């Protein structure tokens, strides 16, 4: 099991890969749309996060409301 900091890094790395930019340039307020992440890339990113964490990471009823990098990190308390 990974701790919260490791989980944050996993998520940031996956977002960075989808956005094709370095993870250390991402900010919580960055819009996923502004990062160039379209709906297909978003779905793939969510699946990659859940596979990397080895568990469901997001509520599937509200996953469509995730709009920013910070929204993706919110379940971790970051």
Summarize the structure.
By secondary structure, the chain is mostly helical. The protein is built from three helices and no strands.
Question: Which helices and strands, and how do they pair?
Answer:
Blueprint: H1 4-19, H2 39-53, H3 69-73
Helix pairs in contact: 1-2
What does this structure look like?
The protein starts with a helix and ends in a 5-residue tail after the last helix. The protein has 3 helices and no strands. Helix 1 (4-19) packs antiparallel against helix 2 (39-53). It is mainly α and 78 residues long. It is globular.
N-to-C CA distance: 18 Å
Structural class: mainly alpha
Average of pLDDT: 91
Computed over alpha carbons, the radius of gyration is 11 Å
- Unreliable spans: none
Order of helices and strands: HHH
Number of strands: 0
Oligomer: single chain
List keywords for this structure.
single chain; 78 residues; mainly alpha; 46% helix; 0% strand
């Amino acid at each position: 099991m990974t701790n919260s900091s490791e989980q944050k890094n996993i998520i940031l790395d996956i977002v960075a890969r989808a956005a094709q930019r370095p993870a250390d340039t991402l900010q919580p307020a960055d819009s996923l749309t502004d990062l160039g992440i379209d709906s297909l890339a978003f779905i793939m990113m969510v699946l990659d996060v859940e596979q990397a964490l080895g568990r469901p990471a997001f509520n599937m009823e509200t996953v469509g409301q995730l709009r920013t990098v910070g929204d993706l990190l919110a379940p971790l308390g970051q």
